[in-house]
């Protein structure tokens, strides 16, 4: 655990200006998602994938706008056909023709920050503000922080994805903060972090500190990485877990392992089989959490979340995990795997989110792309 002090926050940075990364359960204006196009992400199984996306959009759209990235007019037309057949209200969908390499919007899409206005100012002045001024003010309260994306330091085709945050900022007319640490843009994927919206961020050493296998930021120390997270995401407290789960090609993304479900509560994946590859790293993460503290010094409440039985395709283990759920305004979408643990995981999450329905989305085909619901989505705060 590391607590920050304000003296290290540069003037003009997101943190200095009062911006923060909101928790996922806070109200959204929209969800961003990239319509699938790269068949190599689901080799031999691409055909059902757009239909899974259609179901995801159908569950999200009643509560917020869904903003979909497409590569071309033809790509958009294909998406419209599937969404229409899936029963999606297309008035709740907006399309942006931004070329992409892949559809993993959590990692390469825009990361939105929010600056909260004082309640007194809003309540006293809201009725006196003209509509056009109010709209401009709303835009000023949301910004995009432009982290770099390098294909998880694994794949060569990432240049189009890396350009998406800047394109989104231009399209929305919102402020863009460019990251820089030691003269270089800071590489960060959205799936490598999770926050409680109160100042605490959780991540893994395997992903962010790796300097040998899939290196995001060569030569940066733990302290320098923590400083960048404080400056650009407005957090004050960084919690480090160890490793991620087997089959994860990102090398340790936390959103397959441990997620905040409230300001003081996380769900943490647990593997009951001591012979499984995930048993030891997940037990180590559980032990670490017993000693970690939130931004106010209190303990983290940990709720165990089961793991499905190991899932293989073409002899390759895939990262099937219930922790890759997505919290939308109108529902919590949870990946399911035709596994007896599906029902248990859905029940645990339903108790933790009593304010919105918890919905299972069949993800056996989806996870062949080595990610599921959280990996595909990115929230834009209201």
What does this structure look like?
The protein has 382 residues and is of the alpha/beta class. The chain has one domain: L-arginine/glycine Amidinotransferase, Chain A. 27% of the residues lie in helices and 23% in strands. The protein is built from twelve helices and 20 strands. Strand 9 (194-195) and strand 10 form a beta hairpin. The protein is globular and about 50 Å long. Mean pLDDT is 94; it is low at 120-126.
Q: How are the elements arranged and paired?
A:
Elements: E1 2-3, E2 19-20, E3 28-34, H1 49-60, E4 65-70, H2 73-85, E5 93-97, H3 105-108, E6 111-115, H4 119-125, H5 131-140, E7 142-146, H6 159-162, H7 164-172, E8 175-178, E9 194-195, E10 200-204, H8 205-208, H9 222-233, E11 237-241, E12 258-262, E13 265-270, H10 279-291, E14 301-306, E15 312-313, E16 316-317, E17 326-327, E18 332-336, H11 341-352, E19 358-362, H12 373-376, E20 377-381
Parallel strand pairs: 3-4, 4-5, 7-8, 10-11, 13-14, 18-19
Antiparallel strand pairs: 1-11, 2-6, 3-20, 6-7, 9-10, 12-13, 15-16, 17-18
